[in-house]
Amino acid sequence: QGKKVLFSGMQATGNLTLGNYLGALKNWVSLSDEYECFYSVVDMHSITVRQDPATLRKRARALLTLYLAAGIDPEKNCIYYQSHVSGHAELAWILNCFTYMGELNRMTQFKDKSAKHADNINAGLFTYPVLMAADILLFQADVVPVGIDQMQHLEITRDIAQRFNNIYGEVFTVPEAYIGKVGAKIMSLQEPTKKMSKSDENPNASIYLMDDADTILRKCKRAVTDSEGAIRYREEQPGVRNLIDIYSACTGKTPEETVGEFEGKGYGVFKEAVGEAVVSVLRPLQEEVRRLEKDKTYLDEIIKNNGEKAGYFANKTLRKVQKKVGF
Ligand code: ADP
Ligand code: NA
Question: Would residue 195 show up in a list of annotated catalytic residues for this protein?
């Protein structure tokens, strides 16, 4: 019966980069035909780090707009704010009581984040993986597309689900990592051994999805390469390799085809072509974002009805769980 369920979410912290698009969002769009997808703007996760309320609200809406602009159909899928569905918090509390301190202590992301935000090591930062488990289990998701950095969190989700099921019977679907065509991993334009990230402090390191054409061309032109002078796809040339990945992802070519196309050409010519390829991919996306932004009524309507739809599915699971634990 029906399609398999897929859950994923993104945080509305910082401006989304080309890495977020080519590595995640673009794939979300293709997956949305095959699966029943719940794509959340996970704003509850965002407040584990201090946020300016007006900025968070603005970015959350921009992110949701981007999901739509990228081509995810809100009639066939569910695009919603995590904070609009109270089941996330309610299930997270229950799951907290089925999660061990020791397990959470082993999460490497907590270690990294608490080092980075040493002035605010709050309990939410520590129990973040439990909220993530609740996000996934609430919709009985079969699959979750995750990057390597989130693999540990999916593992703990599976452990919590199995633990709960062992006690109470088959309540939760135990989710699998989505394996299949993974998106390109895009690296920083300035330090190509580091991934491109919306939290990078150097604005030249990332192409932001709403950057204008001149900015994109300039950033590509200034991308760090090497002194080899040859366009080859190999680890020893991480900057060039990254530009090949970007160009290939934007044009649908393989890295080998890209290398062939630019054989014997200089870095200047190649960088310009990369910039133009990025512009051609982002321009229609940006136009669609602008069009949607103007249609406030439509956006509000999607936010409302998709939030209700998510709430409906969430409540089904939540009621089952509540009954099991004795509420
Ligand atoms: P960021 O590091 O930009 O804050 P997140 O960790 O919030 O990104 O990730 C959001 C989604 O985007 C995840 O699915 C992640 O795998 C993907 N993603 C983030 N950066 C990149 C990148 N540089 N290349 C490919 N995918 C990326
Ligand atoms: Na779908």
Answer: yes
Q: Which residue's entry shows tokens 């945080």? A: 11
Of 8, 15, 20, the residue with max ligand 1 atoms within 8 A of its CB, to mutate for a pocket test, comes to 20
Distance 20 CA to ligand 1 centre (A): 5
CATH architecture of 203-290: Orthogonal Bundle (1.10)
Q: pTM of the full predicted structure?
A: 0.93
Q: Where in the chain is the domain with CATH 1.10.240.10?
A: 203-290
Residue 194 CB–ligand 1 contact under 6 Å: no
The residues that bridge with 17 in the sheet, in sequence order, are 208
Its ipTM equals 0.94
Q: Which amino acid would we find at residue 62?
A: A
How far is the centre of ligand 2, averaged over its atoms, from the C-alpha of 298 (Å)? 20
Per-residue model confidence as pLDDT tens digits over 89-145: 999 999 999 999 999 999 998 998 899 889 999 999 999 999 999 999 999 999 999
Residue ranges near ligand 2 (ion) with Cβ within 5 Å: 32, 37, 76-77
Residue with tokens 């406030």, as numbered in its chain: 296
- Provide CATH code, domain 5-178+296-325: 3.40.50.620
| Vertex 29 angle, CA 262 and 76, to 5° | 160
Q: How many CB atoms lie within 10 A of CB 94?
A: 17
User: 153 CB under 6 A from ligand 1?
Assistant: no
